[in-house]
Amino acid sequence: MSKAIRMTRTGGPEVMEYVDVDVGAPGPGEVTVRHEAIGVNFIDVYFRTGLYPQPLPNGLGMEGAGTVEAVGEGVTHVKIGDRVAYAGRPNGAYAQVRNMAADLLVVLPDHIAFDTAAAMMLQGMTVQYLLHRTAHLKPGDTVLWHAAAGGVGLIACQWARVLGVNVIGTVGSEEKAALAIEHGATHVINYKRENFTERVKELTNGEGVAVVYDSIGKDTFFGSLDCLRPLGLMVSFGNASGPVPAFAPSELQSRGSLFLTRPTLMHYTAKREDLEATARSLFGVVASGEVKIAINQRYHLQDVAQAHADLEARTTTGSSILIPH
Q1: CB neighbours (10 Å) of residue 212?
Q2: How buried is residue 164: exposed, middle or buried, by Cβ count under 10 Å (0-12/13-18/19+)?
Q3: Is the dihedral of CA 33, 121, 278, 45 positive or negative?
Q4: Of 113, 227, 278, 287, which shows the fewest CB atoms inside 10 Å?
């Protein structure tokens, strides 16, 4: 038997149960992975609360790293003993051992530790596509990045610096402000003390930014639109404060013919070649030392409720992981 987190209903952190599960042999196209580390991300909260629906009962977690223990029929790109990592649906990473589709897995280079991989696959590949594919950025561009001291934000600040892109980051405390600057943000705005829209206009001499990357949602969406220069791009990739309310498309026109996208990693890595290229790009920038992964919270698997509570309270910085053994 193995241990895993299961939920039979949606709600607060208490709906996650630490239970015994029987993991059978992998089916065709599947592998059995024994986790060494598991990533915790805000999207897990969306599934737990029911904001993102899923059939119940079910597991949680979209990111992990470990070793292949068994291989099902037809699997050729990984073998028993391989070190692997992944980020993607279906949920179920909150487990010591799981069976999963082999197509989600990438082989982990020897120089990247399991905990680093579990902390960076979802967040790091998200930053990769957001900076390299969603927007066409060039050196000297300035972008606004909300939650700059979070796991995605700290990776983004560093990677943007590599690309010569200036980041104005929003944070909720002076400690987080220092952390974002340390990781490459050009400017930071403490949204609890300053109006971020007004401050962005000051920092850009009234011009606005080329792109806004907003994972907060409801609380920041319209203020973010007001930070953009004409023909700027609004990238809404999360709902930490709740979903964005309905609005008229004329809101984009009146602010300067703005562009809006609501991307997700799963579409950008749906093709095997795109998944491998995205992971390879992430592995390269981490291996070079240009981007460092900050694992600032570690929890035992059975303490996942505390991990979620801390995440929702916005007391975490960098990445959080679960240790399954």
Answers
A1: 28
A2: exposed
A3: positive
A4: 287
| This prediction's pTM | 0.91
Convert the pLDDT of each residue in 6-29 to its tens digit: 999 999 999 999 999 999 999 999
pLDDT of residue 100: 96
- How far apart are alpha carbons 181 and 157 in whole angstroms? 8
Residue 57 preceded by cis peptide, ω within 30 = yes
What's the rounded Cα separation, in Å, for the pair 247 and 13? 32
Question: Three-class SS of residue 167?
Answer: strand
User: 287: which 2 tokens?
Assistant: 């291996």
For the chain, the residue count is: 325
What domains, with CATH codes, occur in the chain? Answer: 2-121+293-323 (3.90.180.10), 139-262 (3.40.50.720)
| Distance from C-alpha of 60 to C-alpha of 201, rounded to nearest angstrom | 40
**What does the pLDDT read at residue 242?**
86
Tens of pLDDT, residues 141-182:
999 999 999 889 999 999 999 999 999 999 999 999 999 999
The amino acid sitting at 63 is: E
Residue 310: count other Cβ atoms within 10 Å of its Cβ.
16
Distance of alpha carbon 250 from alpha carbon 177, whole angstroms: 35
Query: Which of helix, strand or coil describes residue 228?
Result: strand
